[in-house]
Amino acid sequence: MKAIRRFTVRPVLPEALHPLSDLARNLRWSWHAETRDLFQSVDPERWAASESDPVRLLGNVSPGRLAELAEDRRFLRRLAAAADDLNDYVTGDRWYQTQAQSSELPAAIAYFSPEFGITAALPQYSGGLGILAGDHLKAASDLGVPLIGVGLLYRHGYFRQTLSRDGWQQEHYPVLDPNELPLSLLREEDGTPSQVALALPGEKSLRARIWLAQVGRVPLLLLDSDVEENDLGERGVTDRLYGGGSEHRLLQEMLLGIGGVRAVRTYCRLTGHARPEVFHTNEGHAGFLGLERIHELSYEDLDFDAALEAVRAGTVFTTHTPVPAGIDRFDRELVARHFGPEAELPRIEVERILQLGMETYPGGEPNLFNMAVMGLRLGQRANGVSLLHGHVSREMFSGLWPGFDPDEVPITSVTNGVHAPTWVAPEVFRLGARQIGAQRTEDAMTVGASDRWDAVAEIPDQDIWELRRVLREQLVTEVRERLNASWRQRGAGSAELGWIDGVLDPDVLTIGFARRVPSYKRLTLMLRDRDRLLDLLLHPERPVQIVVAGKAHPADDGGKRLIQELVRFADDPRVRHRIVFLPDYGMAMAQKLYPGCDIWLNNPLRPLEACGTSGMKAALNGCLNLSVLDGWWDEWFQPDFGWAIPTADGTAATDEDRRDDLEASALYELLEQRVAPRFYDRGPAGLPDRWIEMVRQTLTLLGPKVLAGRMVREYVERLYAPAARAHRSMDPSSARELATWKSRVRTAWPRVTVDHVETSAATTTAELGTTMSLRVQVGLGDLAPDDVEVQAVSGRVDAEDRITDGTAIPLKPAGGPDPEGRWLYEGPLSLDRTGPFGYTVRILPTHRLLASSAELGLVAVPSEELVEAAGVLMR
Fold this sequence. Notes:
Layout (H helix, E strand, L loop, with lengths): L17 H8 L7 H10 L1 H6 L4 H7 L2 H8 L2 H19 L17 E4 L15 H16 L3 E6 L7 E4 L5 E4 L11 E2 L9 E6 L3 E12 L2 E7 L7 H4 L10 H26 L6 E5 L6 H10 L5 H10 L1 E4 L10 E3 H6 L12 H8 L10 E3 H8 L2 E4 L2 H10 L15 E2 L6 H4 L2 H11 L1 H9 L3 H5 L6 H29 L19 E6 L15 H8 L6 E6 L7 H14 L8 E4 L4 H10 L2 E4 L11 H6 L4 E5 L2 H6 L5 E4 L10 H25 L8 H14 L5 H22 L2 H17 L4 E7 L11 E9 L8 E9 L10 E4 L1 E4 L6 E9 L6 E9 L18 H7 L2 E2 L1
Parallel strand pairs: 1-2, 1-9, 2-8, 9-10, 10-13, 13-14, 15-16, 15-18, 16-17, 18-19, 19-20
Antiparallel strand pairs: 3-4, 5-7, 6-7, 7-8, 11-12, 21-22, 22-26, 23-24, 23-27, 25-26, 27-28
Helix pairs in contact: 1-6, 7-28, 9-10, 10-11, 11-28, 11-29, 17-18, 20-23
Family: Belongs to the glycogen phosphorylase family.
EC number: 2.4.1.1
Organism: Streptomyces ureilyticus
């Protein structure tokens, strides 16, 4: 029978065990081994049955067992120690509090993301973006960075994945009851649940409660629209992650951005938490937060332009996609209908909102509202998530800064990192603790001190190899259990499944491949030459085995076909003991998969992988990477700790099938000729000495680089601190000053010209070290020299006379205006490089409150006629 109503019955803990509740409600347990061990000791069987979720565990422990623990002095001492440790962790000074410039750092940062992967017990993530956001919060907590996370609470999460008998992906959406999750409601002082509300067209409203997840020191606010005050349609706004049509997604993103700012204000009012000085938008989904902050400032007598400057100063925008198709875009009429006097943000003109997101640049779609474009226009600072992705992003968004070379587009990069305490296997941690001590190992994983990682060099080869086998054996056990469950879901009976006991071998080279399944990640590249793959899997002396996992988006039938193709190959009785597909890839599976693999395979179409952090998690466990030079691997690859799959760049890149064939062949060759022999070749002591040395180099050299702690420190130093300084400088008076100045410059810019350029050089050849004199006449129209900077840009030139590695030198005013209103600028030009060399002159706007000279997207350069006449380029 089906229940007509559902309740959550909470356990009543004996008074002596009350600290268990506090420990369970702080998600630090998800990365703190001692706390997890404490919960496991409460009831090992129920701990396993609860899938290592303390809240579920405490809901299922018998009253008798609780009474027994309340009298267990040893357990109570452990409980008191864990509670004291948590208190020290959340209240004591950490890295952030010890910085010399701490007074200049932001008092608080609000971090917005559409998904957060904190733990499998709180399934609010779909893939890399959410896991990265979760790791960002955890690392911020470890470092003491005063972050406030903001997201949505999806009642169905993303989806659970199973397979049909013929290998087709099936989606299931279990209902998540917030009362059964490690969450608590944010409440007003009178005890009523706090709410935020958005105005919708037709005099309707969208209301949401605010759930709080405590991630160590960091509060994470999750908005939930499933409240009685909403109509049925509005209750479903936060039903699924990345579900529904355009209007559904728009409402989700309005709730995340606008409602999220209101939730932060409510949280700070109720708790006394410092108000954020910096707002960080993790991808464009939360971009509307900037509009809400502009709307707030409209009540402080700031007009739109001044409020925009005030908001931009304290906003950081991170883009995660290297392809336009990965960005949310909405029809302009749909956006217009949800804003203005009859809907949300009534004090802002709808046309001003639309201008922020419209693709008003060459190649753009003029009727589409682009969330990433809005994020860039609302953020004074922006970044990609790897060095290569920063370059790709500058190319992709260069239309927003016309006249500038892509390298000058103001988008920097902070390479992603991963939270080691979450992803490093306990066995790896224990080996490190034996070598350098538990506290020093923990410090290495959170702060990233390289001297701690250097200690890996002292670990004996035998210990490393034994550890790798233990982890591989654990993965084999995990795979067999999951494969058995998967086949039962596919309809198989016990009599059919005896073969699973022989799946995988703990002494065979094990390759892992697990990620989302869009086409560019090329799940099935390994199947391009099936006979060659068969030879690899079944080699009599050097076999390989492969574990594959991944989810396709529910609407992506192409991705589902790739999964089906892989599954059907893996079902072949000839190879099913050597290659497996595991459905329902998520955090719990990943924490077993990364440590247990010897090789982590990644073969995307370059350069479409923004970062690719799964390989980082594998590396922290001593797994070697075998990857296309894309994302983070392009930045940090060295032959000492992995292999680079050659890519078919150039003409072959335009022929997709030929490119796949060439790159698959390169992959097979690496496995056959270099990877497998190195794993199986044994030295005098019977160990694969060269392989073990690569594992050691991976841990020593990559370990400190791939940490989320390193990433968050970079965000603090390079983005958050400058944004906080800019925010403090942008008081109402300064905001009005900058807005007025920008308006004046934009109006006057069409009359800004480079009129004449002359140099002291008499020929088109010169010696290295020569210094020339430049004299430039410019027209500034209604502007003054204080409004601009005149620069000489010089460097090597390519075959088309384009400067490829330019250096900009400011020229100084030397006189003017003449009767025709022209100003004279002069300066030296040093010929500091040999070979084809060239220079040009340009004029840029300049103001003390600009973060970048490219901020306005305005530049004046010599006309083609002037270039020809002046002989600006030399050889």
